[in-house]
Design a protein that fits this description.
By secondary structure, this protein is mostly helical. The chain has a domain of 82 residues. Helix content is 66%, strand content 0%.
Length: 122
């Protein structure tokens, strides 16, 4: 029965929200590994000004996970733009500003929707 479930999952297209949730979970595992690391992280570039720390460390890790996925999407889109050229996809800049001002899963999915329409998330 488990094999049948895996076949159905592999053969059916996943929704964008499910795919993004998977990416956020992967990023969350990386954030958790880094948080429990015994060696300090080496900083190769100058740090930004410290942002106020949220009261809940769980929320901080979730926000960091969302931000990592957002940054990876940005790398993908910039690579695409360097190959294709042309203007920024209409609405993408506003969606990115919205995510930066309030990093939530819903705003991340909105940004990812623009990249999915360009077939960059397959």
């Amino acid at each position: 029965m488990l094999n049948q479930l895996n076949q159905v999952t592999e053969n059916s297209p996943a929704t964008l929200a499910v795919r993004m949730r998977s990416r956020v979970r992967t990023a969350r595992r990386a954030v958790d590994r880094r948080a429990s690391a015994t060696r300090p992280q080496l900083r190769s570039r100058p740090g930004r000004q410290a942002e106020p720390q949220p009261a809940n460390p769980e929320n901080a890790r979730e926000t960091e996970s969302l931000t990592r996925v957002f940054q990876n999407l940005g790398v993908t889109y910039r690579r695409y733009r360097s190959q294709i050229g042309g203007p920024v996809a209409p609405g993408l800049r506003d969606a990115a500003y919205s995510f930066r001002s309030d990093p939530t899963f819903a705003s991340l999915v909105t940004v990812a929707g623009f990249l999915d329409r360009l077939k960059l998330l397959e």
